[in-house]
Amino acid sequence: MDIIAYTYDADYHCIFCTGKKLIAVARNKRKMGINTETSIETVVDNDGNEIHPLFSTDEWMELDESHLSENPIQHLTCGDCHTIIETYEHQGDE
Ligand SMILES: [Zn+2]
Fold this sequence. Notes:
Layout: E1 3-8, E2 11-13, H1 15-31, E3 52-55, H2 65-70, E4 73-77, E5 84-89
Antiparallel strand pairs: 1-2, 1-3, 4-5
Zinc ion binds near residues 13, 16, 78, 80 and 83.
């Protein structure tokens, strides 16, 4: 199972930006003389919530019928760099 993104700060973030966040946290801790491990498991977001991985098999898209009819193509984008992580294309019921 592949991790395609992470969820924190009430948004999705690509793996690259998540890595940058971890490095920034580790750097800040070192500056303050805190010597604890910095990893996905130990870091919390700005709301104090854990960082959760989003797997390639997870449903991030909106599958509500009325929403789908207006948005058959949906993009999973990074909240930081706005890169498109994944695209979902709804196959109409033929
Ligand atoms: Zn990003």
